[in-house]
Design goal:
10 strands, 5-stranded antiparallel sheet, Immunoglobulin-like, 1 helix, 2 domains, mainly beta, 189 residues
């Protein structure tokens, strides 16, 4: 009985020793879009090589961080294409791998332009989104000549009245509203 207990205690001590030498790796999306924070916690100071590979196993980034026991480091994916990436950390205890799925932060938006009732040649632009984006507004006459052009930065809900009574030369105007995420809406009145 005592030999079984002693064997069990030795096995537990050995397993704790083995697990204590394994560094901890964690990868988490940052509060900043397209940035992933890599957390590393080793048991003693040493060099750590960080490599990032694309889904087709091409090396897209590599660096060695010297003489560290632990670190938190941001890695910016904004210049990379959307897709699957592998982050590999190598130290004297071996290699650890973490996979990330990078998706660009997209903003969903709703665009609406309408004629204002009982107000001749006045139009209301409404933009609602769940983030921040640039909105480009172009207004054309019926000969497709540009009457007005404007760039706006919109966060949340935005409204603007356009008074075209001084520039309207025909019976028809077209609003073309484009967002920085590629959404295009054309409305003719």
């Amino acid at each position: 009985m005592n030999s079984k207990i002693i064997s069990l205690v030795i096995a537990c001590v050995l397993s704790v020793t083995v697990f204590a030498k394994t560094p901890l790796l964690s990868v988490a999306p940052s509060a900043t879009a397209s940035v992933y924070d890599v957390y590393y916690k080793g048991t003693e100071a040493g060099n750590v090589k960080v490599s990032i590979y694309s889904s087709n196993n091409a090396l897209v980034f590599s660096e060695t961080i010297n003489n560290v026991t632990s670190f938190k480091r941001p890695y910016n994916f904004s210049n990379l294409s959307q897709g699957e990436y592998t982050i590999v950390l190598e130290d004297k205890n071996g290699k650890q791998v973490e996979n990330v799925s990078y998706r660009m932060n997209t903003v969903n938006s709703f665009i609406h332009v309408s004629e204002i009732a009982n107000a001749e040649n006045k139009y209301m632009l409404n933009v609602t989104n769940d983030g921040t984006e640039s909105v480009y507004v172009k207004i054309y006459n019926n000969q497709n000549e540009l009457l007005h052009e404007q760039q706006l930065k919109v966060t949340g809900t935005f409204g603007l009245v356009y008074n075209l009574s001084q520039v309207k030369t025909s019976s028809e105007v077209t609003f073309e509203v484009t967002t920085s995420n590629g959404k295009v809406q054309r409305m003719t009145f």
